[in-house]
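Problem 12. The chain below contains 302 residues. Write out its predicted structure in C-alpha cell notation.
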Amino acid sequence: MSYKVVVLIKPKDEQPALDRAAEFARFMPDLEVVAVRVVNEFTEDKKQALEQTYTRELNNLKDRYPSIEHFTPKVLFAEDVAEGFCDFAGCASHQFDLVIISANKRNTLKDLFFSPIDSQIMRKVPVPLLVVKDAQAPQRLSRAIVLAIDFEEDNHDKFVDEVLFESAKIFADNFNGEVHVLNCVPPRHTSLMGGNLSQSVILGNKKPLSRTDVHAQALCAFAERHGIPQENCHIAEGRVDEMIPKVCEGLEARMVCMGTSNNDGILSAIDQGASELVLEQVKGDLFIVNRLVKLENLRPKS
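Solution.
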C-alpha cells in the first residue's frame, strides 16, 4: 500500500516536517514524498532561473534523507505562501494522503496582526494535516496517540471521526503505538475555564445520566466499534485547548489528533485559534482534519 505525502520546505536549514517524513519512510518504504518550496518573492523574468536554483537545493536536501526512496522536488511560485501551498496540496489530481508542515515559532504581539503560515494552512488545507513542532525531541515507540473527539450531538461530524481514527491507527500500527480516545466535555458557560481530570468511564452506572454520562456513553460506543480498550478511553471536562494538553502530558503522547466540525460547535473553535493553543502546549505532533476535507479527496487504498 503506497502512501503519498506533501511536505512544505522551510526557507532555512532546519526541516522538522521533512525530518518526520524521513522517520515515516524508515517504517514505510513505499512512502512517496513531494517536497515543495514556495517562492513568494519573484518577477516573471526571473522565475526560470529561480526554479532551477531551488530545484538544485531540494535535490541537495534529498541527499540528507536516504530513507526517503521516493522523493520528488517541486518549486511553486505564489505571493501568498499558504494559499499557493494549499491549492497545490488540495489538487485532486495529486491524490495526497497527508500534508506535513513545520510549526512556526509564536510571537504573541506579531500574531495579533499577522497569522503564522502554519495557522493559515491549518484552516485552509483540504487534506489531513500533520504539524511537527520538534522532530528531534525525544521519541519512544509505544507512545500514546491521542484521538480527541467531540461527541456533542449538534456538531458531531462522524466522517471526520473516521478519518481521524484511520489515520491514528496508521500511525499506531507503524510506530507500535496505542490509540487513546479523549472526549472533552465542553463547559456550558464560556466563563468556566477549569476542568476535572478525575472523571472516568464507568459502565453500569444506575444514576440519572449527567451530561458527562451522555458523552461517556458515546465514547464507549465509539471505542467498542473500533476495538479500542476501555482503559484507553478518557473523559475530561473543560475547554478543549486546556484539557487536551493536560491529558496528553499525563499520557506522554507523541501525537494528538483533532478534527473540526462542519457546524458551529466547540471543536470549530479550532478556526479561532484553539489548534494553535494546543500546538503551543503539547510536546508531540498535532494532526488535524479540518472542515474542508471531503470524502472524495481521500483516495481508496489497494
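Discussion. The longest strand covers residues 32-39. Students who got a different answer should revisit the alignment rule from Section 12.3.
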